[in-house]
Amino acid sequence: xxxxxxxxxxxxxxxxxxxxxxxxxxxxxxxxxxxxxxxxxxxxxxxxxxxxxxxxxxxxxxxxxxxxxxxxxxxxxxxxxxxxxxxxxxxxxxxxxxxxxxxxxxxxxxxxxxxxxxxxxxxxxxxxxxxxxxxxxxxxxxxxxxxxxxxxxxxxxxxxxxxxxxxxxxxxxxxxxxxxxxxxxxxxxxxxxxxxxxxxxxxxxxxxxxxxxxxxxxxxxxxxxxxxxxxxxxxxxxxxxxxxxxxxxxxxxxxxxxxxxxxxxxxxxxxxxxxxxxxxxxxxxxxxxxxxxxxxxxxxxxxxxxxxxxxxxxxxxxxxxxxxxxxxxxxxxxxxxxxxxxxxxxxxxxxxxxxxxxxxxxxxxxxxxxxxxxxxxxxxxxxxxxxxxxxxxxxxxxxxxxxxxxxx
Length: 408
Known about the structure:
6-stranded parallel β-sheet, alpha/beta, 19 strands, Rossmann fold, Alpha-Beta Plaits
């Protein structure tokens, strides 16, 4: 009888509190693997970590490798440690076969017997290595260049997963599930605390904004947050800029009067007229300078010097000047802000929020707000404790948040 291939692995941390060990076991069994617990040393105090050593079995070497790659993201590392395996990229825009696909958690690779931190954590990338400089960093597929060295396989890779804190956190129970019945005042106080901390830490505070912010009449409250420095960069699309300018120039959003809440004659043309007015002026900054645009979110971004990235789509009218139609270029423009982020508000914009979430390191606290529970669940289900899901009207949320932060 042929003995099944196996590898001994170690995992350390708050294994019970954070459910790290059960997650590893589940992944092994879900992939039809087997395991044996060789040792399990449980921490005896709140600050002590636990350590487990497992023997993981696969049907064959390929099956074992699949299992080991799956459990690496939980912080598992081989007992018989070895350096990371490196292979050159065969051509521009193509990773080597079996390249290590990154998570957005803190990751280390072993080079020359030393653990090196992978710079700029981001999911769905490869790890490029400069052996001479002993440096490793994430690289998106489109940015790969032939001949560059990339990590392949799971050997020599160590991931530090997020763990549930041992300290008492009054908001922790709310971040674990999505519900419209959570106490909103307590949630908003906690969000305000997170934004204050990010601002004091001089981290970027990203607002990913959908047109519903304008439709609900919340544009002025978002402007208050921008003016007070609680939003340092805005991500959105052509729609939010268009309807914001439509509201500022014509008093409507999607042709609906923001004062009366009723359709106006010819309102279906208003978004086109708003785009035309900004294009005729030469852009948002020129429209503000010429006195064409005197209020609204885009006006506030211009007057405060707050940067923004507007990513286009196939359905855009116009588009507005400054909208980036190339998706890879838009992604590249967003990435530097995501790497410096301390918090992210995802405000009724599912697709742009998902794109932003894919660029954010796991440690960045994200606040996902939408009236639709399914949208909030999709955004908050990124598999980490840092996502806060809030099912509520985005207009009410922004007004209460701005008030809680004391924004003028």
